[in-house]
Each structure stands twice: as C-alpha cells, then as structure tokens.
Amino acid sequence: VESFLEGKDLRSAQQFMKEHTDDNLVVIAPTGSGKTEAALLWLDGEKGFYTLPLKVSSNAIYSRIKSGYGYEHAAILHSDSMAMYLKENPGSAWEKQEQAKLLANPVTVCTIDQLFTFVYRALGTEIFAATLKYSKLIIDEIQSYDPRSIATILYGLKTIQQMGGRYAIITATFPPVLKDFMEQYGLADQCLFADFTDNPDITIRHKVSIRYSEMHLDEIAEQGKTKKVLVICNTVSRAQEVYEKLRERNDSVWLLHSRFIRRDRNLLEQKIMEFSESDEVGIWVTTQIVEASLDIDFDILHTEMCTADSLLQRMGRCNRKGRRIPELSNIFVYDNKNGSGSIYEENLYQRSLEKLKKYEDILFSEKQKTKYMNEVYRTEAIRNTEYYRKIQDCMEKFSEIHPAEYTLSEAKVRDIKSITVIPDTIYEENQELFEEIEDRYLSKERKQEIRTKLQDLTMGINLRTCFGHPDGIDKAAIGSTDIHRTQFVYEFDCETLQGRGLLLGEKADSIFL
Questions:
Q1: What is the pLDDT of residue 76?
Q2: Could you tell me which residues come within 8 angstroms of residue 288 by beta carbon, excluding any fewer than 6 positions away?
Q3: Tell me, what's the pLDDT at 510?
Q4: Are 272 and 296 in contact, with CB atoms under 8 Å apart?
Q5: Residue 206, Cβ neighbours under 10 Å: how many?
Q6: How far apart are CA 158 and CA 161, in angstroms?
Q7: Is the pTM of this model over 0.90?
Q8: Considering only CA atoms, which of 145, 165, 69 is closest in space to residue 109?
Q9: Distance from the Cα of residue 332 to its chain's centroid
Q10: 138 has pLDDT over 60
Q11: What are the phi and psi torsion angles at 458 (to 5°)?
Q12: Which of 192-201, 212-221, 229-238, 359-368 has the lowest average pLDDT?
C-alpha cells in the first residue's frame, strides 16, 4: 500500500495509523478519509484480519486489497467465499478455501462470524484466539452491528488484548456509549482514540430536510430524469411498493434488496456500482443493505427515518466524494414511522429524530454529525434502552461462560434465524444440480462446487417473515440440502436487471419474469 500511495500526501488518519502500528487504536474518520489505506498502513506487512459487517462489503474490500494494493496472497473467508474463489480460478478454489479456513494467509478479509466464536469457549474455537494472539485485527464500522455483536466484539477484543494481540477500530461514527463500555471493561486504558471528523479539508457534503409524510414520489421521479437519486426504505415490502409506483412515473428505476437470489443480487450490486461511476441518471430503490456495503455515490438521497447510526451511514452514499457543497437540500428524511418499534427501537428512533431537527436546512458538517451521534447515544440518556441493556447483559454473560458449555455449532456470533429458499422457476431450470448432488460417489470437490452453485440460486428469508406466509414455502428441504422450494412469484429480468424480486404472499401462476 505504501508503493501505491508513493508521491501522494498522506491524509491525517493515514499518517496517524502509519505512526502507531504497535498500538491499539480507535480511529474515527469520515467517508473519503482513505480509511482502507490507513488500516493497511497500520497492518505494516504483519499477519492480519480485516473484518467488515457484511459479506458484500467483505467481497469488495477483498477485491480492492488484492488487485488494487498488490496483496496477492490475501484470502477471503465467509459462508459464501467459495463462490469468489470459483470465479477467480476454479481449479484451485478448493485448495484456497481450505487454506483460508486454516487462517494461514498473511491477510484475511472476513466477517466477525468467522473469528469471534472463541468468546463462547467452545471446543474447536481455540484456533481463532491462538491466531489472533500474534496477529493484527481491523474492525471496520463497528457501529453497524447489532448490540449482541457489539458485545461479542468488545469482549473478544478484551481477550485479544490480554493475550498481547493488537486491534484497530476504524469507523465513520463511534457512539460514546461504546467508549464507555470500553472503559468499563478495561479496553480504553490500552488504546489510543483519534477523531479526524473536524478536518477543514473535508468538503461539507449534505443539507437535510425532514418531512413528516410518506415519500414524495412525483418529485423523486422528476429528479431521476436529470440526477442520480437513491431511495432507501426500512423494509423490503415498502421498497417493492415504492419501486412499483416509481416505475409508473419513470422507466429508469432499479430495485435492490435481500429478496433476490444471490446470482441476481450480485448482478444488481455490480450494476449499481457501475451506475454510480457512470454519467447515467435514474433512480435506485434499496433497503439498509447499501448502508455499509457498497461504494456508491448519488446526487440526492430520499430515506425513511431510522436511528442516527444508520442515517449517517445512508448519508455517506450521497455526494460521497464531496464534488459540490449543496445549496439546496440533497438529503430528504421521511418520518413515516415505518420500522419504528419493529426494526428500530422506538426510543432510539425518536431520539434520533428529535436531535436531527437542529441540523435541518443547514450545511451538515462532519463535526456536526459527530456531535449529533454523541447527543443520540449519550450513555446517561440511553441507559434504560434495550440497546444498552442487551450489550451489558451479553458482556456479563460472556464473562460467566464455562469452557465447553457451548458446542461448536452453538457458538454463533449473530443469531440469524433464517431459511434458505429457491423460487420454483429457478428450481425447475436447475433441477439437474439437485439430482447430481445426491450422487453418493460424487467427489468432495465436485460436491462443494455444486453446493456453491446452488447457493447462488437461493436467498435467505427470516423465519419470522416466513411465519406470516406458511403456505408458500415447502416445510421439507430438497433432498439432502437445506434448501426449501417456494411457490411465491419471483420477478426479475436478467437483461434489464429490473423486477421486484420475491413477492411474499403472491402465489405463482404460469407466467414468470
């Protein structure tokens, strides 16, 4: 990375991390500060792990590190990483996957789910703690995690610190409550904190307007004729509804959410990144999946209200590169209560809204964003929230776990209860793969290859969501797989990359897109 940056002036965060390669760090720096390069400078050629909240962001950073910065022997490790290896070189995919599982590479990009299972002290997780003892660990965007995951990370960092391992948290926002937990558990004493949000060289990129209504679809459709417009909804069903209504007003509208099969979602993710870099104009309707995962830059953002941490992440997708200081509002926030009390804790939702009002219709600087975040997540004010109590309860629980109390299969960082489904039309097109995987004489490598191909044709559906639609998803899995067929309509056009995805509650007829 130093050769890549040769001849360039290092930015403040990059210079700081380069000068403190032997220290544990918390570095708060806004989008556009070169945080990825700063993290690699801190790594300084030593064995390291780069963790991110989502698989898609892991994929993007892995590709960037490997091809952009010359880390030829970098590895990627998550539940779908085999697909990345198959795309790179099918002949060596199995070998690379096994090497990554052994944590043998000099740099591994992964999600926290792969590393932090050791906090459960289950037999078989010792390798992760032992490896992190002599490695460096990078935690990217810690505020994007749920309370249980945050507690897992903080307790894991405490263990790593006690063993002599080193870590760096790099983030655009850092809620003060997390610093308080770090102080409470002895992490802050051996860690340097650096805030680079008050940097005069960073262009003010946003001006916010709050609307107490549903989205203004006619205005959005009109803006999409001359600008790049991003619309973020809090639920998939609302995103599908908004997309369908906008399509009646503007042809250049695309949709991205979690209810596309992985193959099609990959196409959409590639499309939105290409769209962002092009001269093309139009509208993208999405959900929270773009908050911390995709490097995209739009002219205008229309978003449903959410908690402060998510809102600031969403703002980072608008005027990301700071090409212009906005004269008029380029961020439109809609307080329509969609997701309040269900997706987002109502108390934090309301605090985020109330504290945002003072920053409406003014240029919203990075320093002010930090102040806004600190106001919302001030420890004394949120001590009685579920968010705070869950972090505290999990931290206490981890300290009381006895060795071997949990089995390896029970040691899960994120308790994601979901079911893997394949739309009937996709199943019928690929039935031979399901038949082949049942061949008892199939080689281990071929079986893994088929599993990866099948993963590409599926999506995960939250079990709570499935409970509301019990008659549209088969209860029994297909053969020896864990994949369930669904009779709900799946709508996607592979040529235009348009469609609503899986339509829960709408049974398929004989016509499919």
A1: 95
A2: 232, 234, 306, 310
A3: 37
A4: yes
A5: 24
A6: 5
A7: yes
A8: 69
A9: 22
A10: yes
A11: -125, 175
A12: 192-201
